[in-house]
Amino acid sequence: MRVCLFRHSRAPAHSARLQDRAQTSTEAILGRRDRHKADKRARIARAARQRFATVGYDAATTAHIAQSADVAVGTLFQYAATKPELLIMVMNDEVAACVQAGAAAAAVHRTREAAVMAYLAPLLALAAVHEENFSVFIKEVLFGPAGQHRDAALGQVQRIEAALCGLLAQRDDREPQPPQRQDADLTNAARALAFAVLLEVSSSRLGLHPATTTTERVRAQLDLVLHGILRPRAGDAQ
Q1: What does the DSSP assignment read for 37-64?
Q2: Which among 120, 64, 129 has a CA at the least distance from the CA of 91?
Q3: What does the alpha-carbon distance between residue 152 and residue 88 come to, in Å, rounded to a whole number?
Q4: What is the distance between the alpha carbons of residues 4 and 40, in angstroms, rounded to a whole number?
Q5: Three-class SS of residue 220?
Q6: Least enclosed by CB within 10 Å: which of 91, 167, 171, 173?
Q7: What pTM was computed for the model?
Q8: Per residue in 204-238, pLDDT tens?
Q9: Of 230, 226, 5, which is closest to residue 114 (Cα–Cα)?
């Protein structure tokens, strides 16, 4: 009887150890799967980035990108369901890096104009280097079908608008300009500026304004957002 009781007393502990081992094994399997998925995504993104940068969006094919990433085409489509989604996936990473760099650059400026232009500079540089890809990216983000990476890109656009709103609200007594209107809607102003930037970048590829640079046109758009086109009338409240 004592032996029987002894064996029964060990059973719960033994069962607990088996459960712990099973859980550890499951976590290890899931960890490996996550690492494999992350590795495949990185290879696909790297191959797509290189191909898009080398030949442009139109000439790039998903078959060539999949081959370069050492994955099947079907596997590639598990990470990006379409070719536009694949471009958006790649550009999302690039835009995120630009936004981070722009925020750091803007932080050292005290005036609205300087801070906003510093924030936008990395994005404008990216668009200048990859005009075709960036133009397609904008078109797909604004007008393309719903998708995982497009949703993420729209989230980035919202974060850019929020950052611009904060920069437009920045005050500096040294600025030689009238005080801000009390009824000014900075959220709408930031949205107007963000979409003006996107459209100006696209117009560069179309060659609509060959006499000016994208940066010059964006600076002009910013000036309109800040100062408008009408002179304040005498007696108007600021």
Answers
A1: HHHHHHHHHHHHHHHHHHH-TTT--HHH
A2: 129
A3: 9
A4: 54
A5: helix
A6: 173
A7: 0.79
A8: 667 676 788 889 999 999 999 888 877 665 555 54
A9: 226
| Structure confidence at residue 227 (pLDDT) | 83
Domains of the chain, residue spans? 8-69, 82-227
Q: Which position has the higher pLDDT, 13 or 109?
A: 109
110 token code pair: 């005290």
CB 149 within 8 A of CB 89: yes
CA 2/CA 28 separation, integer angstroms? 39
DSSP 1-35: -HHHHHHHHHHHHHHHHHHHHHHHHHHHHHHHHHH
Neighbouring CB atoms inside 10 A of 231's CB total 8
Q: Tokens 């400026």 appear where?
A: 109
Q: Which bin fits 71, alpha (ψ -120 to 50), beta or left (φ > 0)?
A: beta
Kindly report the CATH class assigned to 82-227. Answer: mainly alpha
List, for residues 154-170, the tens digit of each pLDDT value. 999 999 999 999 999 88
Taking CA atoms, 50 is separated from 118, 208, 210, in Å, by 27, 28, 28
- Tell me the pLDDT of the chain averaged across its residues: 85
